[in-house]
Specification:
single chain; 265 residues; alpha+beta; six-stranded antiparallel beta sheet; five-stranded antiparallel beta sheet; DUF2993 domain-containing protein; DUF2993
């Protein structure tokens, strides 16, 4: 009897492990196919990362409905800043009008879309003429994926800390300033960076600026950055910092997309 139970347990275990393996393999293949299609239709230079969230995968595929998907493309050529990263989180993804492996150009109904463009400190610094720029969240805020003012960990848009050497202002010391981020322009694609104050407290460069240099230093850290088009053309709803990046995020509900809309510029 004991041998029978052991044999039965081994059989059940093998079946379960096999089923999990099949499910995992199917998910990996589906993610690979989505990634390849997305690279083709969005004209990316490399395969983006695609993750289909949730276990098991096979019932989702059979139902033509994914609970959540993540798409990330790094180092995408950008006409204004040189390079940027693009991200999208898709919730309640209905692929009943296409294949579970997705086909180019087919419409996809999505219950909620979170769309982001991420520009790292280096490329922000090059754009404003401060090559050693470092971007950080406002003092006292968390700006990683476990905190911040949005679900994805983005800080607030007021008082983002920019630290660098504003040589164009005739100042050759590293200085920290508080910068407010906002969106402007008729198509809501211009990120406006407005430096408001010199920062000298803990966690900053601690460098004071003479009164006669203050306006020029603040101006060196201020600039409009046009052409910030979010994946799938979502309108921005938040701007801030995460890690050492500037992030613009847009969130909307009930949208029909095609994968070609992931890259807008």
């Amino acid at each position: 009897m004991r041998k029978l139970l052991i044999g039965l347990l081994a059989t059940v275990t093998a079946v379960v492990v096999g089923a999990v393996g099949v499910d995992f393999g199917a998910a990996v293949y589906a993610e690979y196919r989505w990634s390849r299609v997305l690279r083709e239709v969005a004209h990316l230079d490399a395969d983006p990362w695609v993750g289909i969230i949730g276990f098991p995968f096979v019932p989702q595929a059979m139902d033509h409905h994914y609970g959540e998907m993540e798409i990330r493309a790094s180092g995408v050529d950008h006409p204004v800043v040189g390079k940027a990263s693009l991200e999208a989180t898709l919730h309640d993804v209905d692929v009943s009008e296409t294949s579970w492996l997705v086909r180019p150009g087919e419409p996809i109904a999505v219950g909620k879309v979170e769309s982001r463009i991420i520009i790292n400190s280096t490329h922000v610094g090059r754009f404003i003429g401060i090559p050693d720029l470092l971007v950080e969240a406002p003092t006292g805020e968390t700006n990683d994926a476990t905190g911040g003012t949005t679900e994805s960990g983005i800080s607030s848009n007021k008082g983002v800390v920019f630290t660098g050497t504003p040589e164009s202002a005739g100042f050759d010391e590293r200085v920290s300033v508080a910068v407010d981020l906002s969106i402007s322009g008729p198509d809501h694609t211009t990120l406006v960076m407005t430096a408001t104050d010199i920062l000298t407290g803990a966690g900053t460069a601690g460098q004071a600026v003479p009164v006669d240099k203050t306006a020029a230093v603040l101006d060196a850290f201020s600039a409009p950055m046009p052409g910030q088009k979010l994946p799938f053309g979502i309108a921005p709803t938040a701007q801030g910092a995460r890690g050492s990046d500037v992030i613009i995020e847009g969130i909307t509900d009930d949208m029909t997309i095609t994968l070609g809309g992931f890259r807008q510029s």
